[in-house]
Design brief:
By secondary structure, this protein is an alpha/beta fold. The chain has a single domain, classed as Ribokinase (UDP-N-acetylmuramoyl-L-alanine:D-glutamate ligase, 3-Layer(aba) Sandwich). 35% of the residues lie in helices and 31% in strands. It has helices at residues 5-10, 57-65, 80-91, 138-154, 172-185, 210-217, 224-237, 282-295, 300-314, 325-332, and strands spanning 15-20, 22-35, 42-55, 69-76, 94-101, 108-116, 123-130, 159-164, 188-193, 205-209, 243-247, 253-259, 262-268. The strands form two sheets. It has a nine-stranded mixed beta sheet with strand order 5-4-1-8-9-10-11-12-13, with helices on both faces.
Length: 336
Amino acid sequence: MHPLNRFIDSMTGKRVIVIGDAMLDEYLYGQATRMSREAPVPVLEFTERRVIPGGAANPAVNAARLGARTTLIGVIGGDTAGRELHTALAERGVDTSGLITVEPRPTIVKQRIMAQMGLRFPQQVARIDRIDRSPLEDAQRRAVLDMLTRCLGDHAVDAVLVSDYRSGLIDSALGEAIVAQCRASGVLLAVDAQGDFDKYVGCGVLKCNADEAAAYLGAPLQSDSDFAHAAAALADRIRIGGGVFVTRGAAGITVGVRQDGDLHAQHVPAGHIEDVFDTVGAGDTAIAVIALALVCGADVAQAAALANAASGVVVRRLGNYAPSPDELRAALRGGA
């Protein structure tokens, strides 16, 4: 038995709240029949449509798949996409009581056009985003914070996970309020934000990718030493209590953590993956696994190793994917 399996076993029953920009990922598939005479693009004959939870809904699905009791807090529209997202989340075991309907704001939809051309996986030829990035009204943001307060008060929560796609939900005031709420409640706050880190000063865990870390620090990251300095710098500047996880794709994760008053960084390499088909959703899976691993008693290196293994499962699938506990165990054995 792999020594990290005990943390996977302990994830069942953990109570997790995910708050962030909930989205619906829509896939339209078509068989490529010929090239268009109007433009240098293939003509696709429609074959099927699929919808799956995206944005902040994806880490919620990942946490639920690993056995956590998961509630998603976010904003959707009173539209067909919002209803489809509700249904898709419920089918995957996510509590949707925290979703707030805001009219006339539309549910965020990312529509991908997929060409089926005889390959193992369809080829994405275009993406259309339907999104309103305008800020929420103050009353709407208060409703989101009130929902978090209610969830923290009604349940013994193990972790709060923020999935901030910078799509209009979380401004600086709300981000700071979420940090304050979690600190007051003694709950781990794990944040996955696309570069806008300052509003989460004092959170427990921060995850970002290499590009986001480089952009925030204003310096290119190339060597292991660069990443070690970056992870430590982020832990210091954002005053992270638990650790900074900088994901590096196939290279693994570099972790920065404060121990006994000093900043330390270490690199946790990923295992070799031969077939990488789609990196969509790998970061969402990583933050869900990191948060759950930490509340189950893993240290930062162990949490990073679990996240590497889970992400390795995801990148071999098309689109968002939530690994099961058995798939994560198999990945640790080298079978991902």
